Amino acid sequence: MNLEKIYQKRHKKSLGENGSGFIMASIPVIGFVLFGMIPLILALAMAFMYVPGKGNIADAEFVGFENFKEVLSDEMFWQSIVNTLRMAISLPICIVVALVVAFLLTKNIKGRSFFRGVYFVPYVCCAVAVSLMWELIFNQNHGIINSWLGLTRDTAIPWLTDSSTYTLCLIIIGIWSGTAYGIVLYGAALTNVNRSLYEAAKVDGAGSLRCFFNITLPGVSPTSFYLLTTGLIGALQEFTRPQMIGGGNGAGPNNDGLTIVFYIYRRAFEYNNQMGQAAAAALVLAVFILIVTAINFVVSKRWVSYD
Amino acid sequence: MIKAKKKKLTAKSLLSQALIYAGLILFALWVLLPFSLVLLTSFKGIIEANSLDFTWWPKEFTLQGYEKVLEYDMGTAYEGVPLIISGFINTLWIVIPPTLLGLFSSAISAYAFAKLQFRFRDKMFSLLLATMMIPGTILLTPTFIIYNQIGWVNTPLPLMIPGMFGAATCVFFMRQFYSGIPTELIEAAEIDGMGYFGIFFKVMVPLSVPALLAQALLGFIGGYNDYLGPLIYLQDPEMYTLQIAMNQLKSYFAGRNVPAMMAATVISIIPTVTLYIIAQKRFVEGVATSGMKV
What we know:
The structure holds two protein chains of two kinds.
Chain A: H1 2-13, H2 16-46, E1 49-50, E2 61-62, H3 66-72, H4 75-87, H5 90-105, H6 112-124, H7 127-138, H8 144-148, H9 163-191, H10 195-203, H11 208-219, H12 221-235, H13 240-244, H14 260-270, H15 275-303
Helix pairs in contact in A: 3-15, 4-14, 5-9, 6-9, 12-15, 14-15
Chain B: H1 2-42, H2 46-49, H3 64-71, H4 83-115, H5 121-133, H6 140-149, H7 157-164, H8 168-179, H9 183-191, H10 196-207, H11 209-224, H12 228-233, H13 242-253, H14 258-278, H15 280-290
């Protein structure tokens, strides 16, 4: 009796569950409205406007679909999409390598924590340092690759300034820095695959390869799906590495390093009066990402098993 | 017969064991060789680093690269303070306050979403869910215009203020964590007369220190490595973060002094790599759980 009274009294003093909960939960929601929703609405509006100067919104004019027409008829924009997709080739390679490495790590071996520790290091390295690191490796005049190939000054391959090798280099860099995340996620997922399934398979006389393809692979399919979805969203917004490794004009040889985000960045911040076109291009990219993600989800029903 | 079969099996398992080690060592080399190359090059002389006649080990160890990087100050208002150091200090005070405050905002909100009943709870939560669906690129231009209107461009505020409200991914992660804490514990605290805020600070926070630490580390690394944000908003060299300072150092040293460039690279990754080595377990935990629940 008494206890209940005290309990009620104390409860009255405080805000009550309804109020407290609302206040506590609201901070990130307010942040989202201020820094997510309002800009998003503005982004939609801007895509249909001519915005003079470097974002002089007060003098903006409504221009209908002009921005979209300009962006979609711009060859550079289409090239930036192709460039981005070509660089994204590193993603499936990353996923496969990460799975293989994580699988090897589950074996009974010595020094597992050492290997695991080493493999994760690229994840904490900034893209800027990674770019500089690989520029050193691929450098035409003093890079280790050319030296290993035994090339001289005259025969040296300009890896990063030649259109035929540039994208390949960026894919390699992407693989180097992109596998760490997958190794960690697969590491966690592999330990969760049901042990008894392996034992049952062993009794049935299945070899280790068959076990891998019939038990392990389906077992970690949610992780593969997660890596693919988030990886694609990230890959479609690639910017830092190609921007840092640009040869000369900043977008690589032949503009091969001009990714979609790079294209948007240029229009918005390097050119004048182009904010509207940049917003239109960003909207196209957002729709593209949405479609790709939706396809991903639909197709996933065929190969991802959640049990 | 049986014995022979056994022997064959061990030979086979030895071979597979060897293959596993070979694979793991090869992959470790693939990860580490670029690092060692950068480290060794940073100790080379300019001429040696520019030669195609490549050797791993510097013929002559010199610290000239480090000296040059630590001398370069761009002649700005920070005269005397090397760009790389001012960049590092700027990064710290631009990244740490939003990381900590944002973590608090995310955690307290996660607790409310996980354990409290209140009006609009589900609506608010789905609103947050929507945040994660918006690709960052689409907000690039409108946020710039807004910050321009309120005079935030060329200040660190656009990089700091939004983060203080917390991050949707962090809310999701912490909500998952708090859902796992038994409700009886909270009821017991309620009977002891604690309010909801008291319960959060005295019960939930102490219970979730490892998870919070993991999130803080990931948040810090993310901020430390951010490139596009500072590139857009910070125009004065005095405000440059480390990443932007690196960009400036590159345009100054590239081709002129390769070891200096590599010294800068080494300096720039030392903080994050050290942090990783100290708190490896937390890091991996944070990353692993971030992808568990989709």
